[in-house]
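Fold this sequence, please.
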Amino acid sequence: MKIALNSKQARCHVWKMVVCGLGIVCMGVPAAFGRAAEPPAPKPMTMAEIVAAAKPDDWRALDPENALYMELAGGRVVIELAPAFAPRHAANVKALAREHYFDGLAILRVQDNYVTQWGDPGADNPPSARKIHKAQATLPAEFDRAIDAKIPFALLPDGDVYAGEVGFSDGFPAARDKRSGRMWLTHCYGMVGAGRGNASDSGGGTDIYVVIGQAPRHLDRNCTLFGRVVQGMELLSSLPRGSGPMGFYEKPEQLVPIQSIRVAADVPPAERTDLEIMRTDSDTFRRLVESRRNRPDEWFLFKAGCVELCNVPVPLRKKSAPASQ
């Protein structure tokens, strides 16, 4: 197709061609005479699109030897243990589960926007308290541990109020302080810890709590975190709130019975919940983090440009099944 130009337009375009040919930046030069227009940048992927496009090696299987199944009337809660951060507590809770310590005990406390806690309703009355056989009633605290280069740590870029650095270690939200050489797990939604009294060594896993609300990061390095709920949080976060101080139930009929807690490896394979968790040391997870920092979804009119540790979800899916968040 020919473009008809009058004499003035022709002179103008010839002049622009000469000037551009000298290497001078030309403004407003038609594409036909200037540099070819660059293709538009690809639209950023949403988190759902990133998860859907994840490759098989972006996922890791949940280790049944380091997972617990908590059976409630409403269904199963799956807890992943963190032996890299709290090896003695993880081992002790497994020992308690293997001697069926938790069977028939109860959820004792549900404090709104804080924690759900379970244990022995008769713990304060020695004659009626549940007996411990091979496990231990208390352990030295495992509030933090030495930084170890062998332990993966996917650093987040936006900093933190409570720690020098925060990120993810094998799916667990974690923090570290290079000056002191220490690292620890953090109290994000779904994290599981050992209740204790005033003494640091007064807990061991017989009383267990899970974060069900805002992230109480002030508890970091004051309680031993030894795991996280990876499935079934709705069964713990939707329970009736306790009417007593700190959300404790005041009447026996309010207690929520625990049917059993088992180590997943001890459950027949056909009865297991086979889950895969996204590897937090993968490029796919790094893209996911960026999608949470600058939300590309059409609904978001303002891009925050940052993300807080406890606002980054770690996707999981049933093995060989479509991903979910």
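The CA atoms of residues 120 and 130 lie 7 Å apart. The first strand starts at residue 59 and ends at 61.
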